[in-house]
């Protein structure tokens, strides 16, 4: 196998080197030189460029088209001017348009606008990797993002205080920006040089033009910027912002008879504080005390039958901001399928639902907290002029107790201990920002654990080092990440970890691991190494390998799906550089993966080819074909032996109509099937979006999934001294629908609604036990129970394996039907820059349905029938002091 991997690597390298093409012309780096203005003579930000101060500096224009036809003249030209004083940066734009009545000025919430806009990106660190982005639309809607990883990451959660206004006139439209220098990060310099780029979107033609030309095959975004000069003796501005909040919350729900904790409503009033303190201009301290995230939209509903935890995106503002600094993916890759969500820092661990649950007698009532309370958190982060990126996060979550009302009285029981979470991240740039080396350390420490919480780790630590080196003007790169983990706790906690689905040390056919009941700690390693080419020509590629030792454990403060895994991956992509008679842009990719475990078992081989294209009419489409000739699962039997899955293939297509139109459609479909019909899957999804007028948009979408598997895990049991791995045929259907509307009264006052009905039901039949899990033929892998051996009584199956009329073992009826409806209605008013009022109504209905019912019938009964929903009404007000 290793010979095959080496040959694959050599072939990929040779192919990409052979097809690499040089850029057709040398790109000249542009320079704009600004001048200072007296603060008393600074321009008024009204979108009209009539202030005399603008005469101090010249216009710069000559934008060049970037898409669809790179390095050609744009439909209409754009020009700008830049001024500054000791507190602000001022930018004025003139966007020419011969048909101003056709300028698209749609309203929307901040960061979510459509239509014509103009943008600047400022690399004030001049590190060729990070930038601050400011955008203003023709409707005066603002957008701001922090750009990292040379343009591969755009963080829209960054919300600085700044000012902008746009106006449409007979020549097109104009805009002005006023950006406080306190919102930027830069070093003190006698004559500073910043990276600079400006982009204009001409919406009617979906055309992007740029001040600094960036070839279609450029290796990165920020590294392609021009320069902003003339910034003389600019002094860094320390940021000091304090934002207290107050929130009132009313929760209503169906009262539960006799339950003193569920009387039908709860009312609460709370407050807290967020602060941002500039320790230096480069480094900022963020603080939060008793944070509230009540305005955050609920997670979409999901059902997982593979036993693994579901990854959800972080939505809480405190943890999103500067997340790029703390991000440490174990094995992200262009090829995908390398556990890309695995990360040493998964911020949703902080404030998670309590992990304990009290053991109570019959007739007891329990009041269990939904989440652990974050007592306080602090982040110290930024980047110094010496090229050091630094991030430190400290958070403490409080003890959480369940209140228990039981015969004999009331008592409290701890369900989550006082816990300290710590993250430290550092990176250093070298070699004119073409190389970096970094490290990370995380720690989770819990106070003394009572006996009933002894299954938790007392402590969990991880450490990692990473590097990336680029050469040939950043066209080529080599990078790597290595991680180490150590967890400690009681023998119960470590045994629990060894037996968890991530590790499964108890697997009977695994000679390289075994459960040690006396262990009180566990240490493991993982990592990723890769080589790739991303610029200079049509061809791109990446190849690499990633591993996770059987003992690696990240889930105290990170996210990890599976240990005991070694996989090689390769990706080759061909991209167009110019439009042709059919497409504005297209790309074709090839991927393959090979997977082993640490015992040397060859568990998987998979191949994929996919393409995506933008047509001349701005429709977009794509397709994907997958083929998996070899598949063995070490987790399918939840601690049993490896199980062979039959070879399978799948196909996927998707189509999006022109997103500029007020009425647009998205459609996708995926079909997968094992060659021996042992499993198959089908997914179809569509979305319709309509914007009848500039301030209102509506979208309705639905997704339907059908999954059938003749070897779906049910349970592991014992027949005397013999293990029994029970499987069955599963027929699962899932239907979800979503409705979303946005009404923008003005850029600072918006109303948003999101609602999602969801139902997933599964029916099991054709029960069987696994007898020869790695047999070549599907029917040789199991022994099926006949009607004389299995019977459903009182919602559990009684199995008489030896047909002696005595029940040998039981298994609960695994059929399920889960029905949910979640919704959020949010009114947001930014009454002052950075200060907001939220009015929120959230609703949640969750019930068990009948697996034998039709999907829509169950949805109607459980969601739109007599079910009493849980409602949350919340009013939150913040005031942002910028000192």
Global Rg: 29 Å
User: Which structural class is indicated by helix and strand composition?
Assistant: mainly beta
What would CATH call the architecture of the domain at 2-237? Sandwich
The dominant shape is globular
* Biggest sheet details: 24 strands, antiparallel, barrel
Strand content: over 45%
Structure notes:
The chain is mainly beta and 883 residues long. Among the domains are: 2-237, Immunoglobulin-like, CATH 2.60.40.1190; 647-873, no CATH class. The protein contains five helices and 47 strands. The chain has a 24-stranded antiparallel β-barrel. Strands 1, 3, 6, 7, 8, 9, 12, 13 and 14 form a nine-stranded mixed beta sheet that branches. It is globular and about 100 Å long.
Question: What is the structure about, briefly put?
Answer:
The protein is mainly beta and 883 residues long.
Give the SSE layout:
Layout: H1 2-19, E1 31-33, E2 35-36, E3 64-67, E4 78-84, E5 88-96, E6 117-123, E7 131-137, E8 142-148, E9 153-155, E10 163-169, E11 172-180, E12 189-202, E13 207-210, E14 226-234, E15 240-252, E16 265-278, E17 283-289, H2 317-320, H3 323-326, E18 365-367, E19 374-383, E20 388-397, E21 400-406, E22 409-416, E23 419-430, E24 435-446, E25 459-471, E26 476-488, H4 491-499, E27 521-533, E28 539-548, E29 565-575, E30 583-596, E31 602-615, E32 620-633, E33 643-645, E34 648-656, E35 663-674, E36 679-693, E37 696-719, E38 722-746, E39 749-770, E40 782-784, E41 790-793, E42 796-799, E43 809-812, E44 816-832, E45 835-848, H5 855-862, E46 870-878, E47 881-882
């Amino acid at each position: 196998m290793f010979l095959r991997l080496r040959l694959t690597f050599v072939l990929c390298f040779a192919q990409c080197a052979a097809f690499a093409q040089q850029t057709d012309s040398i790109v000249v780096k542009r320079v704009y030189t600004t001048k200072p203005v007296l603060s008393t003579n600074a321009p008024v930000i009204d979108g009209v460029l009539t202030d005399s101060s603008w005469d101090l500096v010249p216009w710069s224009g000559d934008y060049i088209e970037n898409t669809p036809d790179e390095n050609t003249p744009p439909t209409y030209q754009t020009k700008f001017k830049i001024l500054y004083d000791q507190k602000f940066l001022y930018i004025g734009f003139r966007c020419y348009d011969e048909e101003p009545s056709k300028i698209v000025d749609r309203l929307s919430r901040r960061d979510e606008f459509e239509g014509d806009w103009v943008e600047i990106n400022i690399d004030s660190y001049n590190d060729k990797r990070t930038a601050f982005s400011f955008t203003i639309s023709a409707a005066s809607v603002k957008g701001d993002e922090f750009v990292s990883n040379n343009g591969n990451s755009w963080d829209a959660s960054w919300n600085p205080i700044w000012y902008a206004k746009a106006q449409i006139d007979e020549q097109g439209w104009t805009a002005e920006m006023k950006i406080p220098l306190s919102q930027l990060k830069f070093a003190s310099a006698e004559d500073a040089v910043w990276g600079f780029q400006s982009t204009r979107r001409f919406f009617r033609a979906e055309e992007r033009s740029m001040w600094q030309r960036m070839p279609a095959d450029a290796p990165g975004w920020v590294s392609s910027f021009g320069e902003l000069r003339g910034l003389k003796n600019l002094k860094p501005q320390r940021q000091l912002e304090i934002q207290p909040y107050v929130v009132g919350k009313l929760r209503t729900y169906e009262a539960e008879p006799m339950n003193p904790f569920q009387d039908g409503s709860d009312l609460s009033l709370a407050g807290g504080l967020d602060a941002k303190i500039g320790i230096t201009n480069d480094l900022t301290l963020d603080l939060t005390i008793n944070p509230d995230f009540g305005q955050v939209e609920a997670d979409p509903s999901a059902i997982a039958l593979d036993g693994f935890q579901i990854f959800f995106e972080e939505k809480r503002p405190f943890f999103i901001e500067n997340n790029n600094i703390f991000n440490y993916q174990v094995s992200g890759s262009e090829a995908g399928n390398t556990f890309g969500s695995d990360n040493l820092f998964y911020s949703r661990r902080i404030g998670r639902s309590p992990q304990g649950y009290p053991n109570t007698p019959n007739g007891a009532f329990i009041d269990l907290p939904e989440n652990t309370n974050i007592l306080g958190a602090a982040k110290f982060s930024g980047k110094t002029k010496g090229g050091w990126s630094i991030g430190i996060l400290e958070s403490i979550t409080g003890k959480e107790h369940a209140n228990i009302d039981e015969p004999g009285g009331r008592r409290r029981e701890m369900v989550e201990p006082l816990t300290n979470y710590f993250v430290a991240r550092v990176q250093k740039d070298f070699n004119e920002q073409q190389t970096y080396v970094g490290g990370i350390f995380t720690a989770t420490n819990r106070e003394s654990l009572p006996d009933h919480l002894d299954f938790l780790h007392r402590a969990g630590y991880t450490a990692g080092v990473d590097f990336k080196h680029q050469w040939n003007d950043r066209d080529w790169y080599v990078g790597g990440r290595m991680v180490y983990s150590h967890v400690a706790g009681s023998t119960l906690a470590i045994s629990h970890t060894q037996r968890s689905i991530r590790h499964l040390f108890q697997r009977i056919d695994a000679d390289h691991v075994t459960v040690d009941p006396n262990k009180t700690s566990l240490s493991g390693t993982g990592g990723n190494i890769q080589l790739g080419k991303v610029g200079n020509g049509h061809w791109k590629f990446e190849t690499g390998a990633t591993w996770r030792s059987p003992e690696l454990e990240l889930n105290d403060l990170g996210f990890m799906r599976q240990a005991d895994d070694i996989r090689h991956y390769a990706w080759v992509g061909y991209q167009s550089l110019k439009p042709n008679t059919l497409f504005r842009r297209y790309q074709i990719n090839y991927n393959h993966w090979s997977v082993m475990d640490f015992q040397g078992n060859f568990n998987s081989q998979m191949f994929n080819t996919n393409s995506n294209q933008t047509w001349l009419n701005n429709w977009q489409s794509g397709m994907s074909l997958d083929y998996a000739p070899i598949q063995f699962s070490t987790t399918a039997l939840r601690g049993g032996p490896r199980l062979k899955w039959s070879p399978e293939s799948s196909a996927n297509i998707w189509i999006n109509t022109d997103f500029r139109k007020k009425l647009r459609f998205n459609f996708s479909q995926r079909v997968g099937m094992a060659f021996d019909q042992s499993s198959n899957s089908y997914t179809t999804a569509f979305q319709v979006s309509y914007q009848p007028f500039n301030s209102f948009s509506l979208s309705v979408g639905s997704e339907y999934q059908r999954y059938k598997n003749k070897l779906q895990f049910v349970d592991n049991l014992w027949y005397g001294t013999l293990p029994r791995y029970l499987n069955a045929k599963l027929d699962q259907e899932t239907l979800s629908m979503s409705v979303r509307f946005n009404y923008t009264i003005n850029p600072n006052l918006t109303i948003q609604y999101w609602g999602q009905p969801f139902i997933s039901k599964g029916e099991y039949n054709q029960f069987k036990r696994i007898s020869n899990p790695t047999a070549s033929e599907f029917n040789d892998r199991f022994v099926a129970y006949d009607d004389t051996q299995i019977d459903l009584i009182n919602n559990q199956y009684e199995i008489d394996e030896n047909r002696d009329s005595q029940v040998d073992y039981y298994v609960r009826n695994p059929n399920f039907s889960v029905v949910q409806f979640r919704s959020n209605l949010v009114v947001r008013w930014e009454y002052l820059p950075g200060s907001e009022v939220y009015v929120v109504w959230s609703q949640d209905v969750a019930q068990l349905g009948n697996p034998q019912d039709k999907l829509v019938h169950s949805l109607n009964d459980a969601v739109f029938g007599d079910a009493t929903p849980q409602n949350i009404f919340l009013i939150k007000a913040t005031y942002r002091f910028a000192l």
